[in-house]
Specification:
Blueprint (H helix, E strand, L loop, with lengths): L3 H4 L1 E7 L9 E5 L5 E5 L9 E7 L39 E2 L2 H62 L7 H5 L5 H9 L3 H14 L7 H9 L7 H8 L5 H14 L3 H4 L4
Antiparallel strand pairs: 1-4, 2-3, 2-5
Helix pairs in contact: 4-5, 5-7
C-alpha cells in the first residue's frame, strides 16, 4: 500500500526553458492545473530534463520537494516493503519562465534588431561614399578630356595660321638685295663677305633693313665668328625691330657690347 504522502504526489518531467540557469526559480503547471514553483538544480542548464514531484490531480496543493536529476523513492516503514519508484509521466509540463528570464529573452530580439539596423546604416553610408567618389572621378575624367580636346583644337587652329613673315629664300630673291647675296656667294673668305655687306650698304643709302632681311644676311655668312662684325655693320641701317634683335644678339655674344650699342 502507498502512503498518503505518496498518493498526493506525482512525478513530472520538466524541460528547463531557454535562458534559465541553475539556482533560478521557474513556474510549472501540474496536471492538476495548479501552478507550482520549482527551483532549478545548480548544475542544470537550458534544455535539460529534470524530474520533480508535484501535487496529483484532486489533492490539496502542497509544497513540492526539491527537484534532483533522479528522484529517489520515499523511505518506508520496516513493516511495508519499499515501493517502486514512480514512473515519470510522459506528459511534459509547460514551464513558465520567471519575469527576469522573460525580460532577458525579450531583450535579445531588440538587441539583434539594433545591431542589424546599425549594420544596414553603415552599409548605406559606405555605398553613398563610394558613389560620391565614383562621381568625382567621372567629373575629373570629363575635365581632363575637355582640356585635351581644347588643346587639340588650339593645335589645329595654330596649324591653320600662315606665317606671313618672309623666309630667307624670299628675302634673297628681293630685287634690291639680290646683288648683295650674289656678291656674298661669290666671295669665299668671310672677310670678303663682310666687305660686300659694307660696300652694299654704302651704295644703298636709302635702304632700311627689316628684321627678316637682317637675319637673311646673317645666315648668308657661314662663319659665326664674323656675325658680331656683320651686326655692327648693319645696325645703323636697321629698323626698330631689327635693331632690338641685333642688340640682344650682340649682348649675348659679348655683354660688353651692351654699352656700345645703347643709344646715348
Amino acid at each position: 500500500k502507498k502512503s498518503v504522502t505518496e498518493m498526493s504526489q506525482q512525478m513530472l518531467a520538466v524541460t528547463i526553458p531557454p535562458n534559465v540557469v541553475g539556482g533560478q526559480t521557474i513556474q510549472v503547471q501540474a496536471p492538476s492545473g495548479q501552478i507550482v514553483q520549482i527551483k532549478v538544480p545548480d548544475q542544470s542548464r537550458s534544455g535539460q530534463v529534470i524530474h520533480v514531484q508535484v501535487p496529483a490531480a484532486g489533492t490539496a496543493s502542497t509544497p513540492p520537494e526539491a527537484p534532483t536529476a533522479s528522484q529517489p523513492g520515499m523511505r518506508r516503514s520496516s513493516r511495508v516493503p519499499p515501493p517502486r519508484a514512480a514512473a515519470p509521466s510522459t506528459e511534459n509540463a509547460v514551464a513558465v519562465p520567471s519575469a527576469a528570464a522573460a525580460r532577458r529573452k525579450s531583450s535579445v530580439p531588440a538587441q539583434l534588431g539594433n545591431s542589424q539596423q546599425s549594420a544596414a546604416d553603415a552599409f548605406q553610408r559606405e555605398k553613398q561614399e563610394r558613389e560620391e567618389a565614383q562621381k568625382a572621378d567621372r567629373i575629373k575624367k570629363a575635365d581632363r578630356i575637355e582640356d585635351m580636346e581644347a588643346f587639340k583644337a588650339e593645335l589645329r587652329r595654330l596649324a591653320c595660321i600662315k606665317d606671313d613673315r618672309p623666309s630667307s629664300a624670299k628675302v634673297r630673291q628681293h630685287p634690291q638685295l639680290r646683288p648683295l647675296f650674289e656678291s656674298m656667294e661669290a666671295s669665299m673668305p668671310s672677310t670678303k663677305k663682310l666687305r660686300s655687306i659694307e660696300g652694299f650698304l654704302a651704295t644703298q643709302k636709302s635702304l632700311t633693313l627689316s628684321l627678316a632681311q637682317a637675319k637673311a644676311i646673317l645666315e648668308a655668312l657661314p662663319n659665326e665668328m664674323r656675325h658680331q662684325q656683320a651686326l655692327e655693320i648693319m645696325l645703323p641701317r636697321m629698323d626698330a625691330d631689327a635693331t632690338s634683335w641685333a642688340k640682344d644678339k650682340l649682348e649675348q655674344m659679348d655683354p660688353k657690347n651692351s654699352m656700345s650699342t645703347t643709344d646715348p
